[in-house]
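My convention is simple: the sequence line spells out the residues, with the fold written below as integer tokens. I include a record here:
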Amino acid sequence: MRSRLHLRHSALLLEYGDDRLMIDCGGDWLRHVNSISPSAIVLTHAHPDHAHGLRKGVSCPVYATAQTWDLIERYPIADRHRIRIGRSLRVGAIALEAFAVEHSVRAPAVGFRLTVGKASLFYVPDVVFIRNRRRALNGIELYIGDGARLDRPLLRRRDHHSIGHAPIREQLDWCREASIPRAVFTHCGSEIVRADLRLVNAHVRRLGRERGVVAGIASDGMKLRLRVGTSGRRLDAPQCRRQGDLMF
């Protein structure tokens, strides 16, 4: 589903200094990814709406798990790097760690804990649940999660695994448990895309308030700033980029 505010597959671009880290690159980014000029790309999993924008290759380094590389092995990507679950790595100034999540059996997925300086966020656009969730979300200032469903899960069972999507309501419970102050939901499903976004945002904000979380729905071109210094938390929608802030 598409709308004026949700035209393309979800992707996250983090900017800090000269670093421009893109997370996920779905099929409709195929003709646009080079114009973004990312310094590196990391993939959560190999589903077409997360990886097929790379099927003609890309000039920057690409990072993915071994399972994802197996599924996109024919893509003409020269600079390949392997992500290992539970092991930290650094891409420029941005440190990241992958956590296994339940979402798909055929295309196993991960979520990323991303840290610059004192600031950390967690990005997981498709998820049923996060393995080792307590450690994954400890100290996180911003959770960017799965917007497929609002209140009810979209789940099936396959090979003794749960596949599909946890609802926003449940993910906000995770945020409450981890004392995460803010959450934004992306990769939105038809339940959100077809609806009046004002009403949807009001519902999500209410769900967040009930759990002590400032929450909302992402839209194309949304920009936020995360202060990475030691002066405390600050999350807002900036008019311009400032040195010392992480933009996404």
About this structure: The first helix runs from residue 33 to 36.
